[in-house]
TrEMBL record:
InterPro entries: AAA+_ATPase, ABC_transporter-like_ATP-bd, ABC_transpr_TagH-like, Bact_Polysacc_Export_ATP-bd, P-loop_NTPase. This is Techoic acid ABC transporter ATP-binding protein. Residues 49-271 form the ABC transporter domain. Belongs to the ABC transporter superfamily. One of its GO terms (cellular component) is membrane. The keyword Nucleotidyltransferase does not apply. GO terms for molecular function: ABC-type transporter activity; ATP binding; ATP hydrolysis activity. It comes from Streptomyces scopuliridis RB72. The lineage of its organism: Bacteria, Bacillati, Actinomycetota, Actinomycetes, Kitasatosporales. The keyword Nucleotide-binding applies. Keywords: ATP-binding, Nucleotide-binding, Transport. It holds the Pfam family ABC_tran. SUPFAM superfamilies: P-loop containing nucleoside triphosphate hydrolases.
């Protein structure tokens, strides 16, 4: 005979969120090698002989940006990455996106992660219109999908609110307008894993509110969202979990409210 607890579970089998891991970061270290930290660049022949003999360049210095970070992220989570300047947040995000190979450890992802940075590569000489199409295709949308979502993307970005800017080259946009268009292109698609670097800190208050709403929708569409931000308010409004990095190590991982509170105590001021 089934006990009470079991029968409750079978009556509502789908109410509890399935814990499907989307990103597993396992003991990841990331080291940058910075060349030319001493003297000039040296001659071409000396560089060639270094390559042949596999010696490193004189003055090459290592920057150990991420030091042994491990965590697992699950479907439906929105995770904030917080920490002081240079603590390794952007580096970790790039590693999850597959853009930087870990020097040690491994990153596993389910599906294709998309990194949405304020520096995402759009072509400044092309019009906003062409960039929407190319950006959509680059994210893996079909031509048909780009065509059907084009108007929504432009409307979401608000680029055309003060005139027909979408038919002008992107180099004529303000940095906020460019960031809004990048966010709108990336947010037009549901992502398995969406990585956002400071995107919410650009754009005006109205656009920030709209992008937060879109992130909430993307979460509902069952992806996982990572958000790097220096705005603790954005983290609290958008994320349910936070990772606090300091000097490349993971100092705390837990509910966003608790982690942000500890970080605020550490920094000694509210942001
Ligand atoms: N391309 C690079 N080459 C060499 N060192 C780098 C490079 N990018 C970042 N670093 C170094 O790696 C460390 C972590 O940088 P990262 O940009 O990941 O920090 P962050 O937490 O995102 O900082 P911020 O909050 O200032 O954006 C820093 O010491 C930085 O100097």
């Amino acid at each position: 005979m089934a006990d009470k607890r079991q029968s409750t579970e079978t009556a509502e089998p789908f109410t509890e969120r399935e814990r499907v891991p989307t990103v597993v970061v396992d003991g990841v270290h990331i080291t940058y090698t910075v060349h030319g930290t001493k003297g000039g660049r040296g001659s071409a022949t000396s560089a060639l002989s270094r390559i042949v003999s596999r010696r490193s360049a004189p003055g090459a210095r290592e920057v150990h940006a991420v030091k042994g970070v491990s965590f697992a992220a699950y479907k439906g989570e929105a995770i904030g990455l917080i920490g002081s300047n240079g603590s390794g947040k952007s580096t970790l995000l790039k590693a999850i996106a597959g853009l930087l190979p870990p020097s040690r450890g491994q990153v596993f992802t389910r599906g294709q992660p998309s990194l949405l940075g304020v520096n995402a590569a759009l072509m400044s000489d092309l019009t906003g219109e062409r960039n929407v199409i190319l950006g959509g295709l680059a994210m893996g949308m079909s031509r048909e999908q780009v065509r059907t979502r084009y108007d929504d993307i432009v409307e979401f970005s608000g680029i055309n609110e003060k005139g027909d800017f979408i038919s002008l080259p992107m180099r004529t946009y303000s940095s906020g307008m460019g960031a809004r268009l990048r966010f709108s292109i990336a947010a037009a698609k549901s992502h398995d894993v969406l990585l956002i670097d400071e995107a919410l800190s650009t754009g005006d208050a109205r656009f920030q509110r709209r992008s937060q709403e879109r992130i909430t929708e993307l979460r509902a569409e069952a992806g996982t969202v990572f958000l790097v931000s220096h705005s603790n308010k954005s983290i609290l409004e958008t994320c349910d979990r936070a990772l606090w990095l300091e000097s490349g190590t993971l100092r705390m991982d837990g509910p966003a409210q608790e982690v942000v509170a500890a970080y605020e105590e550490f920094t000694g001021k509210k942001k």
